[in-house]
């Protein structure tokens, strides 16, 4: 018997199909995007975030074989926090530009 999963479950084929349809609607309404932002976290060099080391040390406290790769939720939360903190000044500049362009 074959089961069909609802599109509300992330990363299922139905979810991807729904997200793709929503993306097509956004492109139809707003046009193709002009700005792409790619962010990565360097987890292997000396530039590694201190928080990643803290997460890894805490994971190893519970099990010596664990690393930061076993703490996906914590790493994603950290990445989102860093992203919001780094994008905040950029959005303030864009907002100020939009306000000034409406005044002139």
Q: What does the secondary structure layout of this molecule look like, with pairings?
A:
Layout: H1 13-30, H2 50-62, H3 72-103
How would you describe this protein?
The chain is mostly helical. It has a domain of 69 residues. The protein is 61% helix and 0% strand. The chain is built from three helices and no strands.
Short description:
The chain is mainly alpha-helical and 104 residues long. It is built from three helices and no strands. The longest helix is centred in the last third of the chain and has 32 residues, at 72-103.
Q: What spatial form do the alpha-carbon principal axes imply?
A: flat
Ends distance: 65 Å
Largest beta sheet, briefly? none
Order of helices and strands: HHH
List keywords for this structure.
mainly alpha, 0% strand, single chain, 104 residues
């Amino acid at each position: 018997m074959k089961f069909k999963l609802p599109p509300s479950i992330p990363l299922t084929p139905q979810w991807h199909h729904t997200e793709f349809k929503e993306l097509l609607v956004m492109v139809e309404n707003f046009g193709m995007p002009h700005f792409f932002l790619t962010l990565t976290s360097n987890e292997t060099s000396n530039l590694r975030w201190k928080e990643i080391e803290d997460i890894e040390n805490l994971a190893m406290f519970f099990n010596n074989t664990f690393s930061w790769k076993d703490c996906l939720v914590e790493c994603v939360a950290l990445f989102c926090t860093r992203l919001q903190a780094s994008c905040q000044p950029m959005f303030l500049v864009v907002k100020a530009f939009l306000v000034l362009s409406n005044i002139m």
